[in-house]
Every structure is written in structure tokens, then in C-alpha cells.
Amino acid sequence: MTSKIWSRSLFTASKISPICRLSRILPINRQIFILHQETISYSGPRAKFLENIHPNSFTRTNILASNRSVIFVKHSCNFSTTATYLKQRRTHDDKKRGLGPVSLQAQKMQNKADMKVIKVWRNMSVLQLADAMNKDLDHIFEVMIYVDNSADYDEPWKCIDNIKVIQEIVKKSGMRCIIASEPTSQTTHKEIKDAEKRPPAKLHDCVPRHPVVTIMGHVDHGKTTLLDSLRHTRVVDGEFGGITQHIGAFEVCLDNGEMITFLDTPGHAAFTAMRSRGAHVTDIVVLVVAADDGVMEQTKESIRLANEAKVPIIVAINKVDKPDADIERTKSMLIAQGLVLEEAGGDVQSVAVSALKGTGLQELIETINTQATLLDLKSDAKGLVEATVIESKTDPYRGKLSTAIIQRGTLRKGSYLVAGTAWAKVRSMFDDQGKPIQQAPPSTPVEIVGWKELPSAGDEILEVETERRAHEVIHLRQSRKEVEKLKEDYVVIQQKVEEHLKEYKVQLEEKKRMGKMRYKIRGIRPRAPEEKSSEPKLSIIIKGDVDGSVEALLDVLDSYQSTNCILDLIHYGVGPITESDIKLAEPFNAIVYAFNIGVMQPSVRQLAKTHKVPIKEHNIIYRLFDDIRAELEKLLPPTEAEEFLGEANVLQEFIVTEGKHKLPVAGCRCVKGILKKNAFFRLVRGEDPIYEGRVASMKHLKSEVDTVKKDVECGIRLDSPTLQFRPGDKLVCYEMKQVPQTIDWDPGF
Q1: Chain-centre distance for alpha carbon 453
Q2: pLDDT at residue number 662
């Protein structure tokens, strides 16, 4: 039996003990190996590893057979067979040098001393951790896959508030960390500079560019129709309510081959911010004035915005084909607003056009080209890009995108951009027709896809060299915003502290006046009652299609100052309504308003129906605010109002006796309306009311009646037995009715 085991034995190592104990290959589980007298052959995934080992490399390996007998195999090995200590044996050379056995724990201590030590602190961002470890962001995110509780830190700017997550990331990266205090922001500001515009380009580096023209004017004066005639399109047909509610950027190629970029701004009163942005990014302003209406409110505002931006104005007097058009009156009104036309010796050019019939369009184009030639428009098409965000929105398929006007440089795919506290790596670009383009030179309107966060309309876009530089700029701007917010909060806190000190001084004086007994408080101190507002409250959530529309809605909501009902805006945003919006609206009993948003997902509608959250969709801005006004008025309690019924003149006082009491009775004649017995009566003497209340009796001749019509005489006795009537007094009959309240809010349109 023994010889058979020595010659050839087959073992299955399904467990480490008691079947076999191989000191340094103990982790090899569930593998089949064959033992020979001189060699050991091994089959399994580690066969190649063991083939390189000398045949007599194992010694004193105790193999426990199935009958519990120990088999000794002769071979040599420099590892201990004791699994408890696992310390490395000394070789012959080590004995000569006098070196002792080194344990695995000592080896780990030596490796630990060689590790790099970095400083970490609480609430450090992912980008700061990557900088401290001198690793890129991809390395940090890859390590986070194997670290628990790290799924929330998926953006470079997010702060890691769990110190154990930071320690695990450092440990799995082969480093050691020590917890230190966060570096001061002053040091960071000195090392990192904000992205800024480049100095003005030299004249020989500039190339000619086509003009950017903004069309401005009052609502419904034909701005979009004029642009449609120039572009040979029908944009106005797709606008809700026939009014423009977005700022649009279009590039028009004229019949003579000239290129002009047009910006179409809304004329509605609610879109002042959009008109202001259009005036500040343009070269020329075309002021559209209807010949039948003349100068209106938004016309005056457009003139003011153009003068503030110091942009030349060209007046287009539209709708000259109408029968009631008066061009001369319109010009006089423009001169009264400070626009001195060429006819009056000024430098403002005016053109009479009809956008609907195409009259005077060629003359308007020539006027624009002449003005652009005089301005000698040039720009630097090389270097880092500078642009302005015209509009931004969230597309359900393409993500966050923005429309911008390139002002300097040439934008290409792969560029890194920063705008406010948002940054982007340009994934794709589209023109105003929705066609993809590879580059955008100056004066080009372009739709940029690739924003990580949605930029605000009007923000300045600057190109930076690398992604790391973009993160640095964004982090710097965010830290500056936090400092500004802390300053604002500090002012509010100081005001609260001053109010508290005033109240405390009053309470302290009261305690001193009451003496020592005031300080003996027995029992549990009662909790201060919570102040609950008795005023009705309407909670709303606003979601819009683009950033400019949401901005206009918020500007109108800021004008709400009524004290009858509280208007609580709990959330607003750009993009379609999501399930998180529905879940947020439920605890507040809020109404979700969707402005100009397309079809919602069926799951969102079903969730809103389940949680009973109303969703109201509108495409026209004034109808949305009419709906909000109606919802506010629903919450207001009805008020009592007088409803006039009739009036009677007192002709003479009579004294009647009922039992032992003498009661005054007024002999009256009804002169207006009708008198009702169950209504209220007011006795007026001169201008002063003497009595208000019910009547005790009302008779015609000798019969008790309920009503008395006009020109009929009657006798009226009031509930007050001491009241004296005089000839010439008036009795006014009225009823109190419940009337719904109206909100005192004027949005401005």
C-alpha cells in the first residue's frame, strides 16, 4: 500500500485540511495534483507556475492519507511548514551574513515605510484628491468602483464628505494618508487664475466678418414676419398666440451673396432680459415700428436698450400697406423719443417696408450693408474662442445644449469651454437649420452640444486649453460664489443677532424688575408655540423649454407683492417634467406648470395621476399667469358685500302702543327699488348712518307685508325701540352676499 502511494498517488484537494498541507501553496483549493517520488507534476491553472520549480524544491511536506497516516516526502524548501508563523527560513548565504529570519509582518512594515504619504482633509473634492495623489480623474473613478459608499461622488467638483471613502481610495492606490486641515482659499486663488478675455487683437490679425443684426420692437409689430420675408420662411406660423417668446439666431444668405446674422427678440413686456441680451451682442439694431400703431411701450424700451449698448439703429416702419398707416405721424413720434431721423438732419436711417407683401425689403438690406460697411466689422478668427450664450435648453435626446454667437476665434469639435459655473467639451455643433458643422467662425450662430451643466442665457463663453484647466476655473468661480453667499448670510445673521439682543435686553430688564423669584423655574419649561401662518398659500413648480423663458417667468413672479395669499415657488428648471418633480410637488400640494414643453413621458403622467399632482401646460405666457391668478383667487375666502335693494324716505313718525310699550313707527314711501322685510336696513340722517339692523315690522295699510315696491307707502318699525325718526331721514334696504375675492396683482400685461 505504501509503495503504491510512493509510486503514484492521486489526491483531490477539496479542502486545505486535513487532506493536505503544502506550506506556501496552501491557497490552492479544489485542484487535482499527482505526487511522485522524485517529481511533482501538477494539473490546473497554476501548472505553468509549478513547472518552473525544481523537482526537489519541496521538503518536509506532510501529506495526510485517507487512513490518517503521515507520508514524508523528501525534498528541500526554504519555507516553514508551520502555517501559524509563515516566516521565511534563512538560506546558506543568510547564515553566513548573520541575518535572521524575516517574518511577513516585518516585510509589510518595510513596504509601508516606502509608501507615499499625502495630506487629505474632510469634504475635499474629487479633483482635489486627484491633485493631492498626483493622479488623473480616471484613476480616481476607477478605484471608486472597488470602494463602498462612493457612488454619489461621480463628478469632479463633488465633495467627499465621508473620510473613510478618502482613506480607502488612497489605500487602494498604494499610498498612505494623514488627515490635515484644508488649505486656505487665498493660497488657491494665488495659484489658479480665472479665465479671462484675451487682449485686443492686432489689426493685421483681424479678418472681415458679416454683421450681427438684432430685430427689436413692440409686440405684434411684424418683427418675425419681416425676418420670414428675408429668409423666405414661415416661422411666425409656428408661434403660439402669434407672438415670439424666444430669442432666435438665424444666418441669412442674401440674394447678392452677403451673409447677415439676425437675432429675433420677443416684443412682449415679460421678455425684457431677452431684449437686453440681444442689444448687447449685436452690431446693428433694426427697430420695427408699425405705421398704424406708432411708438408703443416696448418700442421706447428697445430705444433705451440700444442707446445703453451704444449700437446704431435703423428704423423699419412696417405695415405701410394698411389703410390706416400714417408714416409721418410715426416719424414724429420717433423724433419725440430722441431718434433724430435723416429727414430731420440726424444720422438715423428709416425705411418704409411691408413685411407681408415684401415692399421695401431690398432697400432695407442695402441700408444694413451700408451701415455694416461704415462700421468696418473685423474680428480675430484665430486663438481661443470668445462667445456669448443666447439661449440654453435641455434636449431629451441630445442633453444640455446652448445657442451662442461666436465673437472671436473659431470654434471646433473637442474644444473645452467655460461659461459661468458650467463647462463643456464640444461633442457636436449645429447651425440654425439643424445641420451639423465642423467649425464656427466669428459672427456665426451655433448650437453647442456637450455641456455638463446648463449655462445661463447671457453668460460669456471662454475657451480653455485642457479639461483640467476647465475644472480649475469652475472650482475657482464656485468658491468665489460661496464666499459671496457667506458674506450675504453674515449680514442676515448679524441682523438676527441684533434683533435677539434687543429682545434679550427687554427680558433682562423684566427679570431684574421681578427679582430673584423670577429665576426659579420649576417643572418642565413649556415649548415656545410655533407660529403658523393663517394666510392661504399656493405652491407651484415652473418648468420651461429654454433658460430665457424660465428667466422671464421668474421676473414676472418677482412682481407678486400681494399679502392676501402667499405664492410659494418651490422649484424651477429647464427641460421636461420628470418623476422627481412630481415627487417634490406631492408633499407641498403644488401645481406643476409646464411652459412650451413638448409631450411628456407616459410614466410621468401616470405618476402624477397616482399622486394627484395637477400638471398644467401652457404655450402662451399671459395665459399661464391668468391660470396662476385664478388658482390664487380660488384660495381666497369670499368676502361679504352689500347688494342694494331699495330706498325709502321717512315722511312722518307715528307712535303706536303695543301692550304697555309705546313704539316709534316711520311712515315711509319707497322711492327706489324694492324693500324686503327679511333684509337689512340702514337709517341715514344727513350724511351719517344712525342705525343698521333688521326691521321688527313692515305694514302696508293695516296688513303685514314682506315686500314693498316703488312708489308705495308703508310703515316700518325697527328693532330699536328707543330710536326716534325725523322727516327727511332715509331708510336704505340691502342684503349681504358672499362675493369671491380678486387678487391685487398686475403682472404688467
Answers
A1: 10
A2: 86
Contact status, residue 162 vs residue 120, Cβ threshold 8 Å: no
Q: According to the model, what pLDDT value does residue 417 have? A: 94
Neighbours of 101 (CB within 10 A): 12
Rounded to whole angstroms, how far apart are CA atoms 34 and 12? 9
pLDDT, residue 669, reads 93
Could you tell me where the beta strands, DSSP code E, fall in 173-292? 175-179, 207-208, 212-217, 248-253, 259-264, 284-290
Handedness of CA 132, 133, 139, 143 (dihedral sign): negative
Report, as ranges of residue numbers, the positions in the chain whose pLDDT lies below 50. Answer: 1-87, 99, 102-106, 186-190, 233-247, 267-271, 519-523
pLDDT in tens, 625-654: 888 988 998 888 888 889 999 999 999 988
Alpha-carbon span 653 to 437, nearest angstrom: 96
**Sheet with 9-13: strands ordered across:** 9-13, 31-35, 40-42
Residue 451 contacts residue 400 (beta carbons within 8 Å): yes
Amino acid symbol at 142: E
Residues 6+ away with beta carbon under 8 Å from 670: 646, 647, 648, 708, 709, 710, 711, 712, 713, 714
Put simply, whether the predicted model's pTM sits higher than 0.70 gets the answer no
DSSP class per residue in 288-327: EEETTT-S-HHHHHHHHHHHHHT--EEEEEE-TTSTT--H
Quote the pLDDT of residue 422. Answer: 92
> Which residues on neighbouring strands pair with residue 313, listed in sequence order?
285
**pLDDT at 424 (0 to 100):** 92
> Residue 267 has what pLDDT?
39
CA–CA separation, 518 and 512 (whole Å): 8
Neighbours of 429 (CB within 10 A): 23
C-alpha to C-alpha distance for 730 and 681, rounded to whole angstroms: 10
Residues in a beta bridge with 401: 393, 449
DSSP 394-461: EETTTEEEEEEEEEES-EETT-EEEETTEEEEEEEEE-TTS-EESEE-TT-EEEEEEESSPPPTTPEE
Estimate to the nearest angstrom the gap between the alpha carbon of 454 and the chain centroid. 9
Residue 245: the pLDDT is 43
| b/e map 688-717, b = 16+ CB within 10 Å | eebbeeebebbbeeeeebebbeeeeebbbb
Cell 420651461 locates to: 544
Query: Grid coordinates representing 463?
Result: 475657451
C-alpha cell recorded at residue 102: 524575516
Amino acid identity for residue 284 in this structure: I
Q: Are the C-beta atoms of 617 and 597 separated by less than 8 Å?
A: yes
Report helix, strand or coil for 357.
Answer: coil
d(CA 111, CA 103): 13
| Rounded Cα gap, residues 140 and 368, in angstroms | 55
Read off the C-alpha cell for 431: 447651425
| Nearest partner of 283 among 404, 390, 369, judged by Cα | 369
Cβ contact 553:544 at 8 Å: yes
**394-405 burial code (b ≥16 CB/10 A, e <16):** beeeeebbbbbb
* pLDDT for res 674: 93
Residues 6+ apart with CB under 8 A from 443: 209, 210, 211, 212, 259, 261, 377, 379, 405, 406, 407
Dihedral in degrees, nearest 10, Cα atoms 133, 134, 140, 143: -60
What is the 8-class DSSP label of residue 382?
Answer: S
- Cell 305694514 found at: 699
| CA contacts within 13 A on the Cβ side of 659 | 2
CB within 8 Å of 145: residues ≥ 6 apart: none
- DSSP lists the bridge partners of residue 640 as 738
Indicate the DSSP class of residue 359: B
